[in-house]
Amino acid sequence: MSVDGWNTLLVLGGIRSGKSEFAESVVAEAPTVRYVATAPAGDPEDTEWATRLAAHRARRPGSWTTEETAADPGRLAEVITAAGPNETLLVDDLGGWVTVLLDPAHQPADDTATIAELAAAVRASAARLVLVSPEVGLSLVPTTPLGRAFTDALGATNRAVADACDAVALVVAGQTAWLKPAATPTHPAAPVGAGQADVPAQAGPGQAGTPAQAGPGQAGAPDEALPEVLTPAAPATPAAAPAGAPGQADWAAPTMALPMVATGLVIQPGMELPMPDDYTGPQAVDRLATLDIPGAGLGVLERVVGFAAATQGTATPTPWGPVRVLLLHGDHEGGASAGATPGESARRARQARAGKGALARLAAENGASLQVVETPTSAPIEEGPALTGERVESALRYGWRLAEQAADAGVQLLVLAACGAGTETAAAAVLAATAGAEPPAVLGRVMNEHGEYDDAAWMVRCAAVRDALHRTRRSPREAKDILAELGGGDVAVATGVLLGATARRVPVLLDGPVGAAAGMVSRDLAGQARHWCLLPDHGGRPGVRLAADVLGLTPLLDLRLDLGEGATALAALPLLRSALTLAAGLPVHPSLGGGDDEDFTEPEPAGPGPTSTEPEPEFTEPEPAGPGPTSTEPEFTGPEPAGPGPTGTEAGPEFAEPEPAGPGPTTIGPDEPVAPGRRAD
Fold first, then answer.
1. Beta strands 88-92 and 128-134: pairing type?
2. Contact 68, 37 (CB under 8 A)
3. 347 or 637, which is more confident?
């Protein structure tokens, strides 16, 4: 599969550097791969060499085919030339090919001409081609004539093939550095300030050109940039994040092995992103069995403890601190939005911005910030692509920067939410394309504004997905192609958020079809992303169920709430935090070496003075000390506001319900007082 528009890729590396594994990961998601083996069989008595060859064969999936070219060095150029545009070739490696080329059995031969023929075949290749080769230029000059002949020939081959390839990567100690990206910047990188549009590098294969500056309400225009996230496009030093803080690794750090251009990273298949800790998760779950818990334990919530431990890198995880909800708002035109009330999604977005509605109130209850994100409007998928390739690139980078901004602000957990006409239909199309499902099996029923099921609209949506799949039946099924043809703006931004959160080690709660579709797409770009995702509930949606099965995300609950995407995750968040609180705070059971119950003493009250064991004097009402607080049972004068305390969203305290000032009587009408403790019939 091509790497972000590159059709041919040369992977260099030293012995045991991981170059072959990286090359295999680049083509891992291709439907079929032809593995071109160039190395000779070797001495039958050399068991170590035979073991190496067997290890290479064992890593190849069963769907791959193998072609041997060791008998004739000229055969490799013929195989590459004959490969068609729908084929994927992995050549491993050119060191073995040079060994055969210099074999006396093939002499006399014009080595220079044969190398030139190979480079010409690579340059003209119509297939997706990945070649692996040892990098010998950093070693000492061999002391033998044969060794010098080999290094000279291999060095010449690497130079010729690197010049012919679209991209070149160098793998050192398992880390990948990109030596030859597809696009070269025409201007230096500069921090992006408030209100500035994202200015990509010079347009190349798969790269966006210079978009127009975004204006308010213009996110859906086909040729302008997404709104800017106020974070630098390329931080100058890793010191931008607090040193040693968990999850604060800089996304531009070289250890992430991501190719960079002037405006930031290039999102492509096979990215090397972090994985959660393999050991702390099981350790945290095992530790639960030692705690002083009266009953059988936390049940299914043990998975929450294991997930938090792995993502936090500690066997004693703590409840998540700052939480941010990203609400992605973007509509889909055409049959995807059949049955949707016009303007309803925009109203929901305005409501969330104002701190009102179910999502905002649940966010406030959890102390979470709420950020509404405008995504591009998507064209009808039954008629053509939902987005252009350039806009998909921009949306992916935009979502990545959203996750970057959250991580820089100290956010420890992201909740991915979405609202928009046709979002569930677009997500169903993505799930049908990536999981091979039928549209009716992944598309939930449509409910209109009156709370009634609209089966006619559901059939229109199913027909739109069916027509879109038929239209793209011969199109590539790579991640960016699926986002452009079927997913649209919200799914593309959501995918970028998952990738950016993974890069910064920030866990994500998924809730709803858009998040599930983004999880399916992100696995083709970086398989590590799904390991940073937690699915609290499937919500009764068939598409989410299917994605959960494919991604290995077992839902924790079965609440079947239907409050909008993201709301179920927020409703379940207090329960998840409670499990982490118990796991972090409970002591070890005394039978396993914990504290003795007899040593436990009740904590002293925090009152202003010592208590006494003598009988208390007759109670007298204290006199007020002045303009301070009044007695705890004042005469009822109506509910008073609870005070100017902080709310959970950035929109202000408008959604904070006032608390009553005391236990005085309430009323059910203007003339019907009801005493406390009585029921109004």
1. parallel
2. yes
3. 347
On the CB side of 82, how many CA atoms lie within 13 Å of its CA? 7
- Using the structure block, give the residue that is written with the tokens 């998540």: 320
Residue 557 CA to its chain's centroid (Å): 22
Q: How many CA atoms lie within 13 A of 263 on its CB side?
A: 29
Any residues with CB less than 8 A from the CB of 11 and at least 6 apart, and which?
Answer: 19, 22, 23, 26, 130, 131, 132, 133, 168, 169, 171
Nearest to 326 by CA among 570, 572, 558, 503: 570
Q: Per residue, what are the HEC states of 423-475?
A: HHHHHHHHHHHHHCCCHHHHCCCCECCCCCECHHHHHHHHHHHHHHHHHCCCC
Q: Distance (Å, rounded) from C-alpha 150 to C-alpha 139?
A: 12
Residue 21 neighbours by CB distance under 10 Å: 14
Across the beta sheet with 167-172, the strand order is 65-68, 34-37, 88-92, 128-134, 8-13, 167-172, 175-180
Are the beta carbons of 504 and 250 closer than 8 angstroms? no
Neighbours of 172 (CB within 10 A): 16
The three-class DSSP label of residue 349 is helix
Quickly count: other Cβ atoms within 10 Å of residue 177's Cβ. 14
Which residues have C-beta within 8 Å of that of residue 395, sequence separation ≥ 6? 226, 375, 376, 387, 483, 489, 492, 493, 496
Residues in Cβ contact with 221 at an 8 Å cutoff, skipping those fewer than 6 apart: 376
Could you confirm whether 565 is annotated as catalytic? yes
Tokens of 145: 């004539």
Contact 116, 160 (CB under 8 A): yes
Q: What is the mean pLDDT of residues 129-137?
A: 90
How many other β-carbons are positioned within 10 Å of the β-carbon of residue 471? 16
CA distance 167 to 3: 8
pTM: 0.54
What is the β-pairing status of strands 323-329 and 369-374?
Answer: parallel
- The pLDDT assigned to 604 comes to 55
Q: List, in order, residues 6 or more apart from 239 with CB less than 8 Å away.
A: none
Q: Which of 266, 492, 467 lies closest to 377 in space, CA to CA?
A: 492
| Spatial separation of the C-alpha atoms in residues 349 and 329, rounded to whole Å | 7
State the burial class of residue 268 (Cβ atoms within 10 Å of its Cβ: 0-12, 13-18, 19+): buried
Specify the length of the chain in residues: 681
Is the separation of the CB atoms in 86 and 29 below 8 Å?
no
Q: What does the alpha-carbon distance between residue 199 and residue 234 come to, in Å, rounded to a whole number?
A: 12
Residue whose C-alpha is closest to residue 509's, from 635, 411, 591, 593? 411
Contacts 24+ apart (CB under 8 A), 478-482: 478/1, 478/2, 478/29, 478/269, 478/524, 479/269, 479/521, 479/522, 479/524, 479/525, 480/4, 480/206, 480/389, 480/392, 480/393, 480/396, 482/430, 482/433, 482/434, 482/521
Who has greater pLDDT, 209 or 266? 266
SS3 332: strand
Q: What is the DSSP letter of 542?
A: H
Q: Which of 377, 412, 350 is nearest to 651 (CA)?
A: 350
Work out the burial of residue 667: count CB atoms within 10 Å of its CB; fewer than 13 is exposed, 13-18 middle, 19 or more buried.
exposed
pLDDT for residue 33 is more than 50: yes
End-to-end CA separation in angstroms for the chain = 70
Residues 576-620: pLDDT tens digits? 999 999 988 888 878 776 665 544 444 455 445 444 444 544 544
Looking at 48, 224, 565, 654, which residue is catalytic?
A: 565
